[in-house]
Specification:
alpha+beta; Immunoglobulin-like; four-stranded antiparallel beta sheet; 10 strands; elongated
Length: 321
């Protein structure tokens, strides 16, 4: 089990590394422009290969920006600033940009040291792999379903007494979550949504989770009876666990595609595994600590959970890609 978990973590880190280092910049259709990117929710940056004239760069009239799908709607540029090295122009807008959609920056002839470098029609878009990575990290850390949304506390408290049991439940939980989420996505996109049966999604998702848990229950009973016995009643409680149900409901409300749904489920399962591992490690140490009698058992476990929740609140508002 431990070796399997190590191989899985190594593969996951390799994939995440590829996601991080893949380029996420727009295409610059002018040789003098190096790259374009979203700096934040209201700013687009354009980096040039050389210095540009300040009078040209700081004039908002020289830039027209619009979403690629809506070329007739020009987004008003509130302010244009030039970096000290005169190579990067920052376009600031009055309203937040829809960074999920690609944007186009159309410039007048670029002026560099008094020379005309030609016009530019620049694409600005986020890396799709970066977007997938942000969904994964968001579900795992920034919006951890246990420590920030307080879901699944029954299974979390019940199976976090021992590290081995916690890791086993975390891996099993992640597998169940991924399988049920992908089946739920398929049902929602190809059956519930086309036939306007969205109001049945909670009932359908519970049924799909139940089938997945029953399959895992049967397999685990044959493959690893010791782990099955250690889980006890908590494996059955996974059927109605709010974390398991929260993932299909989230992907349905956000209209995620298959890849995005997979990353959300993997992140939520990984976040639950991380929460179980941290909690089990602390509870094993608390068994040896000098805890006041009135706080032993569940009281100190809830206190530790609250402290972990406060720590994870530090990720709130973090923006990735």
């Amino acid at each position: 089990m431990i070796s399997f978990i190590k191989r899985t973590l190594q593969l996951t880190l390799l994939v995440l590394t590829l996601f991080v280092f893949l380029p996420g910049y727009g295409n610059a259709q002018n040789a003098f422009v190096k790259k374009t990117a979203f700096k934040d929710s209201k700013t687009i940056t354009v980096e040039f290969a050389g210095e540009v004239d300040q009078d040209w760069a700081t004039n908002p009239a020289n830039f027209k920006v619009f979403e690629k799908q809506n070329p007739d709607v020009i987004l008003p540029v509130e302010k244009v600033s030039l970096s000290p090295d005169k190579r990067t122009v920052s376009l600031k807008f009055k309203e937040d940009l829809n960074q999920k959609e690609p944007h186009v920056v159309n410039t007048t002839p670029i002026r560099s040291q008094g020379k005309d470098m030609g016009t530019a029609l620049l694409d600005v878009k986020k890396s799709y792999f970066g977007f997938l990575f942000s969904i994964l990290i968001g579900a795992m850390l920034i919006n951890n379903y246990v420590f920030t949304k307080y879901l699944g506390l029954c299974v979390f408290i019940g199976t976090s007494k021992k590290k081995d049991t916690a890791v086993g439940m975390g891996v099993t939980f992640t597998i169940v979550m991924i399988v049920s989420a992908m089946i739920s996505w398929f049902m929602y996109q190809f059956i519930l949504k086309p036939f306007r049966l969205d109001f049945l999604q909670v009932v359908v998702f519970i049924g799909l989770v139940s089938l997945t848990v029953q399959a895992v229950d049967t397999i685990l009973r044959k493959v690893n009876p010791a782990l099955f016995k250690a889980f006890g009643v908590y494996l059955v409680l996974v059927i109605a666990n709010c974390v398991i149900l929260a993932v299909p409901l989230t992907l349905a409300s956000n209209e995620y595609n298959a890849f995005e749904s997979f990353m959300l489920a993997l992140g939520a399962g990984g976040g639950f595994l991380l929460a179980l591992f941290l909690m089990s490690s602390s509870r094993e140490r608390l068994e040896l600590a000098n805890v006041p009698p009135t706080f032993r058992g569940l009281p100190i476990a809830f206190v530790a959970t609250g402290l972990f929740a406060l720590a994870f609140m530090g990720f709130s508002g973090m923006s990735i890609f």
